Prior knowledge:
The chain is α/β, with parallel strands linked by helices. The protein has two domains: 219 residues, Rossmann fold, CATH 3.40.50.10260; 267 residues, Ribokinase (UDP-N-acetylmuramoyl-L-alanine:D-glutamate ligase), CATH 3.40.1190. It contains 20 helices and 19 strands. Strand 18 and strand 19 form a beta hairpin. Helix 9 crosses helix 17, helix 11 packs parallel to helix 12 and helix 17 packs across helix 18.
Amino acid sequence: MNLKVALAKQMHDIDNAAIKDFGLPELSLMESAGHRVAQFTEKILGSVDKKSISVLAGSGNNGGDALTAARYLANRGAKIKIFLIGNKDHRTESLNVQIAIMRAMGAEIQSIDNDRAWERLQVNLRFSDAIIDGILGTGFSGELRPNALKLIRLANAANKPIIAIDIPSGVEADTGIVGDAAINAAGTVSLGLPKIAHYLSPGASYVGKLVIDDIGIPKKLLTENIHQTLLDDELAATLLPARSRDVHKGSCGKILVIAGSNGMTGAACLASMSALKIGAGLVTLAVPESLNDLYEVKLTEVMTMPLAELKSGIIGGEGALTTLLKAVEKFDCVLIGPGLGRADETLDLVRKFVLAVDKPLVLDADAIFAFNGVAEELKNCKQVPILTPHLGELAALLNISVQELRQNLVETVRQVAAELRVIVVAKSECTVIAYPNGEIFISAVGNSAMATAGSGDVLAGAIAGLMKLTPFAPLAGVYLHGTAGDIGAAEKSDGLIASDIMNNLPTAIKNLRAIK
């Protein structure tokens, strides 16, 4: 089953449907959630017997989940102290049920509504072995109220393992945005489905170890009418068909890469070699003619195609365009942009070429820059192009700031893909792939060591190299690129460079083939 990623409202609607359409009582869902949180807490602590655990509960059902977890932990021998925050008149009915149960069990329950209560809380946090975060749920957005902000800061300052329920309090579920503070969790138990913020920073940095549990919600509700999917091992295993015994280099993909300029020759090398290392049969690199000899020496397996220049190292004009349009008929896919340069003549050539070619296209870096201010022209491409921008390039294409883009990255990328009729591979700490039909895929692989020059060139080459091998090249390319980065980082740590990622692509493919 492909694991979906829920928006906050979608998860709220799923909960309501489970209750109203399937007759699953809200208290039953809360029971499952609390039990799973208690199990996870016990796993983190090793044993909870005689351990002191502070439970922080808000006025919503997130607080009810926390109190349910407290009951299970108390039954396992934990010393539980419960602290309630928020207006008691706003407490949900299910939370009140859990409060009554814990009171009947003799649990120590304290409402944080005066200075003395705050002092007791600070003392208890200092001597706790763990903290349960049930302050806020996925419905939170905007600014924290003063008491919630104070509570979150005190919990973090205690420097004890915190187990967050559904999402760390203070993180916006749909965006990953964090305001003044958020719970810095050792682990998070996501209920039903994972949320966007579990993968998008800065929120993802607060999640800790992520555990996902369906808490008994009917499978149908967790799979239908949700248009965000996690790109994980299970999905990736379906994306790359096995090669038949009778393939030859021509049938594995003939790729044209148009890249490189003075000072940026490495981008063309990384992109073209990555296309080969991912499985393409033949790769030809089209470069400014004055640089052609350099590439002939540098690249053994990649063929080269010299292009007419207007200036040394800069392509443009009708001569280069005519050469490319005539040559492109022999290729299965074209990647254009890595290190190509931003001379006016080059950008003009890019726009004319992209709009004239009736071949699968991957646009990266400077080829995307060429459409800044005229993004609407991408609608006129003869086939749906694949764009591979980092967030700075995507923001520039949309004429907004990166900060504005991050305010709602997933929905913005979805809208761009639909309106421009393109596939967008938005590169960030977590890659988001959007299709024109509204489907979103969120990558679960990759690491911070991949923030290195040339990493994007490797990804663009990998996607292009897969275009003849699978209809899911953007997804397979992102997954294999991220996996190769994970393999490389395990050895090189923060010293990972783009060629390490490129050289680990074959191992990433081998590992993908081994997934059952």
